[in-house]
Amino acid sequence: MRPEIGSRYRLTDHAGHDYGEIQVAEIRPAWVIGKLAHGRDFPLVQNAFAQLEEVANEQMLSFIDEVTNALDKVGFRVCSIPEEDCQDVFDVQVMNGNDISFKLRDSSS
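User: That's the sequence. What structure does it adopt?
Assistant: Structure tokens below.
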């Protein structure tokens, strides 16, 4: 899967949770950046993302890895809409309520 600006994806995990729909706004060499419309299961991870935002804003760098590792354990995936072609992602960040960024996991790993 190769994300494109303007494309839409569903943020989910291997258990099928619906965390929301992503609209891709920018693609950088290591990052996909966009907006997230929260899905029905977003409350399951909302506090963890709020904690990540807090430690980043307060520059509590010693805690960032801890929070990021906890979020990575969710096993986030992005799935194309409507084709449902899915790919694992990591380093998922949701800031300011609906700004999202993530990295695509190499499908060969």
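The mean pLDDT is 91.
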